Amino acid sequence: KLKYAEAVKAYLLEHYREQIEIARLAALIGRSPNYVTAVFKEVYGRSPIRYMHELRMQEACSLLLGSNMTVAGISQYLGYYDTSYFHRVFKKYCGLSPTEYVAQAQRSGMPPLINTIT
C-alpha cells in the first residue's frame, strides 16, 4: 500500500499544476480509482485531490508573496481556470482570501501560517 501511495504522491508532486483525474492515478499504479483514493487516504490522511489542492495552495502563498503575478495569473498558473473557484479553494485551505493573505503578511511582516504538507 505504501508503495502505491508513494507513487501517487510522487506523480502529484510532479504534476500538481495539471488537471488531475483519479482515473489517471489509478492507471499509473494499475489499480481502481476507489483503491487509489482509499490507499492514499489511509497512508497520508487525505485524498489525492485534497493533497493536490494543498500543494497548489502552498505554491499560491509563495507566489502571492514572492512574485509580481496577479491573483488571476497565479490561478491560471496553478491550473485553476476559474479565478472565483481559486478564491474559494484558497479561502478554504488558508482561511483568508488571497488579497487578505497578502495584506496580513504585509502588516505583520510575516506570512500567515497555513497547514504544511507532509
What does this structure look like?
The chain is an all-alpha fold and 118 residues long. The chain contains 7 helices and no strands. The protein has helices at 2-15, 22-29, 33-44, 48-66, 71-77, 83-94, 98-108. Helix 4 (48-66) crosses helix 7. The longest helix has 19 residues, at 48-66. It is elongated, with a radius of gyration of 15 Å. The model has no long low-confidence stretch (mean pLDDT 92).
What keywords describe this structure?
single chain, mainly alpha, 7 helices, elongated
Report the mean per-residue pLDDT as an integer.
92
Ends distance:
17 Å
**SS-based class:** mainly alpha
State the total count of DSSP E strands: 0
- The radius of gyration over CA amounts to 15 Å
Please indicate the percent range of residues in DSSP E strands (runs of 2 or more). under 5%
The number of helical elements comes to 7
Q: Helix-strand pattern, N to C?
A: HHHHHHH
The backbone outline, from C-alpha atoms, is: elongated
Largest sheet: none
The helical percent reads over 70%
Which regions contain 5 or more consecutive residues with pLDDT less than 50? Answer: none
